[in-house]
Amino acid sequence: MEYTTLGSTGLEVSRICLGCMSFGTPSWRDWVLDEEESLPIIERAIDLGINFFDTANMYSLGESERILGSALEGRRDRHVVATKGFFQMDEDSPHSGGLSRKAIEQELAASLDRLGMETVDLY
Q: For residue 110, which phi and psi values (nearest 5 degrees)?
């Protein structure tokens, strides 16, 4: 695997980033893989040297983050995790989306909880 520095962050990342939009629950989108089908793909990526993973709070309404966090449990220090927020996560809560400070802090906290991590490397 080839590696590069992520912008000016100093983080060394694989040139290939594994996007995790297709991991979660098929009830969100019919092409999405469930956890049992997703974990072997994440493991194979790690075996091939991929250390950079991208997910988002809205992918399967958070299930993608949970699956990725589970897969990286116990070896978080060796991987770079990016997640993002913007889209409304709860139709009954107008503050569960957007880019206000409230929404960003709230959704980042929820993402960290689902990921089982204290921090993400890129948001």
A: -65, -40
3 is catalytic: no
Q: Which helix (H) or strand (E) element contains residue 14?
A: strand 12-14
From CA 121, how far away is CA 115, in angstroms rounded? 12
Q: How far apart are CA 30 and CA 55, in angstroms?
A: 18
pLDDT at 84: 97
**Residues forming a β-bridge with 14:** 3
The 10 Å CB-count burial string (b at 16+, else e) for 73-108 is: eeebeebbbbbbbeebbeeeeeebbeeeeebeebbb
Given the residues 50, 59, 71, 80, select the one marked as catalytic: 59
pLDDT tens column, 55-77: 999 999 999 999 999 999 999 99
Average pLDDT over residues 85-112: 92
What is the reported pTM?
Answer: 0.94
